[in-house]
Design brief:
688 residues, alpha/beta, OB fold (Dihydrolipoamide Acetyltransferase, E2P), 4 domains, 7-stranded parallel sheet, 23 helices, globular
């Protein structure tokens, strides 16, 4: 058996009890121990002399035990163990609490490294409950840079270090290297055995940096390789379609009652250039809410249809799909085109669905708008040439791949109103060309954003009433639906009843939340769109929703509970019409970090700046997520800081796939590793 696959119980000191504790950390095998990376390090190479120690700081001290351990009890029965250590400059007291084993752990004359925070106890400088390492145990304890691990109940840092150290000894440099020497040299990567040893027990800070670079690269590289594989962008991919309907699209622009912004024109040029090429387009269009992505999507669809192909656009909700359906029909009417458009959703009646599917299969329908239903069994296209996914973050890799597989290498256009920092774009869309619409139409007014406490609620509600009297509408958002005593947050249901009863009796108020049936939700949102409902109380289900230009207030309760990018998405539901719009963030949080984040929201409407800040404050794991990709979150890579490594990873993938290097013999270990690592996910996609 491969040593890496051996149970951790082959290691000295790990019996069934410790194995169960390690299992709580998802550690079963030797390999799992290797990849349970330290969360940080302590530099024990910096040793302080006892005479230089001051209370209230963290120190590493090498001392000799001078006295026997003395035990006593506090008035409350707390066991206190004390003994004195010395070096050539002085002495001080080591203190442990409720540790009945520590008395027999040390004997007079033991030389020990103690690491901990100091304090004054009875006017004597003392170190309470320090970490300690006897200098005679093994070489591991002579290492100056010491790893700190995520732990579980029953496991100590000392034990985790011992287990990992013994695992490395057990494997004895036998871990197979998957990157060929020339590849490592080209991209400046350390050898794998060196990297794993030095990520845990680095010889020097430089060795630690080399180890981190190698293992961070490996994380991003295989994530990007997996996405390339899923999306069919390997060297084996076939040729795409050369589209020729660009003239019709350009003629349509002249019929629009407004001019495209400079950013829209630039992005459209990039899309048209892609569609002319024989290779399939794979492009991400990023643009803030209201920047005008839908018209770009329609012009691409028009180019596709006028070239004799079908185009499909997939949206995450029925409300959004219906909105796109109506908008595109309006464009077709404006252009006086004889183009059939069909809508495919999960809730459509079976008779209409049957007719629509037949029309799509026969090629009579040229443009198809829908939800996830467009990738379901029974939806067949005659000649699918262009695939567009809107609000891409709502779809997994698998869903986009399934949609693309319904044609023969169709062009792919991915749209997102959720700004993504450059580093995250390179990770998630390393194989896509990226276009950014970084300009809003000139008639759009800046949304005024305010951060207030709940003590100003009455004044705020009076302001909202004034706007409603002027004919405007409002969104009120709560972060939770069910009552939670622990978090002490407003329940959306109770909140809705409260404002109806006490503040807004004379207005129609609707409630929308995640567990509602789609029919009920759509009915309320349609009533809001038609002006029959003045206030929508909602959870974040309206984050991506219907376009209501008359809605000018976005009021967000317990705003500290949302990420910045999510707050920005919610804010984007207003400011869509001619009237001045407002976003009000309500929070009574005492957290300085939360206050800082919300104040940041009041200072900028730039989605990309907000996304960058969100990535820095929340980290990559929460934003990247696992549900959308079927992959583990990054253990080492920090997407807010590791841009150079991410960029190098993309260059490495480009080198392998674009130059067909991946087919060479020396890269087959790498290919096998990728296939083995993601076999289940790839099989799932293939089966569907």
């Amino acid at each position: 058996m491969n040593k890496l696959n051996e149970s951790v119980q082959v290691l000295k000191g790990i019996g069934s009890s410790k194995a169960k504790m390690l299992l709580r950390l998802d550690i079963i095998s030797i390999e799992d121990l290797f990849y349970h990376f330290p969360k940080g390090y302590k530099d024990k190479g910096i040793i302080t002399k006892i005479k230089d120690i001051m209370p209230g700081s963290y120190y590493n001290v090498i001392g000799t035990v001078e006295s026997k351990a003395m035990e006593s009890r506090s008035k409350r029965g707390l066991l206190i163990t004390k003994f004195i250590i010395v070096d050539e400059t002085g002495s001080f007291v080591i203190v442990f609490y409720n540790n009945r084993f520590i008395k027999n752990t040390f004997k007079i004359g033991d030389r020990v490294i103690f690491s901990g925070r100091t304090s004054l106890i009875n006017n004597k400088t003392s170190m309470e409950c320090p970490e300690y390492e006897k200098l005679t145990e093994n070489n591991m304890n002579l290492i100056s840079i010491v790893p700190e691990y995520a732990l579980t109940e029953g496991l100590s840092q000392k034990e985790m270090r011992k287990f990992t150290y013994r695992a490395l000894e057990f494997a004895d440099n036998s871990i197979e290297e998957i990157f060929p020497p020339e590849f490592r040299k080209k991209f400046k990567l350390a050898e794998i055995n060196f990297a794993l040893k030095n990520i845990h027990f680095p010889d020097t800070k430089k060795s630690l940096q080399r180890a981190q670079r190698r293992l961070k690269f490996q994380e991003v590289f295989f994530f990007q390789s997996y996405l390339l594989k899923v999306r069919g962008r390997s060297a084996a991919e076939g040729k795409g379609i050369v589209f020729s309907g660009e003239k019709h699209a350009r003629d349509f622009i002249a019929k629009l009652p407004y001019s495209l912004t400079g950013a829209q024109e630039r992005v459209l040029e990039e899309v048209f250039m892609d569609m002319k090429k024989p290779d399939a387009m794979n492009r991400l269009i990023q643009g803030d809410v209201g920047s005008g992505k839908t018209i770009i999507a329609f012009l691409a669809l028009l180019n596709c249809v006028k070239s004799g192909c079908q185009g499909v656009m997939m949206a995450p909700t029925e409300i959004l799909a219906m909105q796109h359906f109506e908008t595109i029909k309006e464009y077709i009417c404006l252009g006086k085109y004889d183009i059939k458009v069909d809508l495919i959703t999960g809730s459509m009646k079976s008779l209409y669905r049957k007719e629509a599917l037949e029309s799509i299969k026969e090629g009579m329908t040229s443009i198809i708008i829908g939800t996830h239903a467009v990738i379901s069994e029974g939806v067949e296209f005659q000649n699918l040439g262009l695939v567009i996914t809107d609000e891409q973050h709502r779809f997994g890799v698998r869903q986009r791949a399934l949609l693309q597989s319904k044609g023969i290498n169709p062009d792919m256009l991915v749209m997102s109103a959720t700004p993504i920092p450059r580093t995250l774009s390179l990770v998630l869309y390393g194989d896509l060309d990226i276009s950014v619409i970084d300009e809003l139409p000139p008639n759009r007014k800046k949304i005024e954003t305010y951060f207030i406490g709940s003590d100003k609620r009455n004044r705020l509600y009076n302001f909202v009433k004034k706007l409603i009297e002027e004919g405007r509408q409002a969104y009120f958002v709560c972060p939770l639906v069910e009552e939670s005593e622990k978090l002490e947050l407003n329940s959306a249901k109770e909140y809705c009843e409260n404002i109806k009863k006490n503040y807004f009796k004379e207005y129609n108020t609707g409630l929308v939340y995640g567990k509602m049936k789609n029919e009920e939700k759509d009915k309320i949102m349609t009533g809001f769109k038609n002006g029959e409902i003045q206030i929508i109380v909602s959870t974040t289900v309206i984050e991506v929703g219907i376009n209501v230009p008359n809605a000018t207030v976005m009021l967000i309760e317990n705003a500290e509970r949302f990420g910045l990018a999510q707050l920005h998405q919610l804010r984007g539901r207003v400011g869509r019409g001619e009237h001045q719009s407002y976003c009000i963030l309500i929070s009574d949080s005492n957290s300085e970090e939360a206050k800082s984040r919300l104040k940041f929201m009041t200072k900028t409407n730039d989605g990309f700046q907000i996304a960058k800040k969100d990535l820095e404050t929340r980290g990559s794991g929460e934003i990247l997520g696992t549900k959308q990709h079927g992959l583990a979150e990054f253990r080492l890579v920090d997407l807010s800081k590791d841009f150079d490594i991410i960029k190098t990873s993309k260059e490495a993938n480009d080198f392998l796939y674009k130059n067909n290097e991946i087919k060479k013999t020396e890269y087959q270990k790498m290919v096998k590793y990728l296939n083995d690592k993601f076999e289940k996910i790839i099989e799932e996609i293939a089966l569907n």
